[in-house]
Amino acid sequence: MKKNIILISGRGSNLQAILENIDKKSIIAVMTDNPNAKGLLIAKKYGIETCVVAKTSDKQKFKDDLYQKILFYNPDLIILAGFMSILPEKIVNDFYPNILNIHPSLLPKFAGLNTHSRVLEANEINHGCTVHIVDNGIDTGPIITQRALLIEKSDTPESLEKRVLTLEHTIYPKVIKWFLKNDPIIKNNVVINFKQ
Ligand code: GRF
What we know:
2 domains, 6 helices, Rossmann fold, 196 residues, binds 5-O-phosphono-beta-D-ribofuranosylamine, two-stranded antiparallel sheet, alpha/beta, 9 strands
């Protein structure tokens, strides 16, 4: 069976959706950079090992610790689910393309933070979320799949966050299941070959 790790920094609603929808035995650990992440309680509820690599002022030490921990687990897939630190380049170079992220916008539009308020300010018609492979840029890696919604006049950043999260919770587990079943992921006629 494939062994995967999930990296979180906060409340862990995507973590919860993943654990509800895939074989939990395939998740060998939940890692975080935030000792107070609420998602740690979700991991514990499901009996999954947790690992904290706390951010410190010593950025290089944090990067090295994270790298060593990830090498220790040597996962088949690294799943970022609201992980707010940038992965050290060495991790991306060693594990690419087997690193996934979910981002709350229709990439390549609105990479980075505060996507819900930025789409409203830009008077966008659509919004949504994207599952993509992580490369060394910020939200720039190959897109695997997206889900979109129409922005309503009454939408606020808060309502958009809620509506987009519902979409996130359906597509992220789906993509992870494709990976676990070795299903080819085909996007724009290009087959994404994960390392098996
Ligand atoms: C989600 O909006 C996800 O797209 C982004 O960070 C947020 C994490 O939320 N990367 P949660 O911790 O999964 O609830």
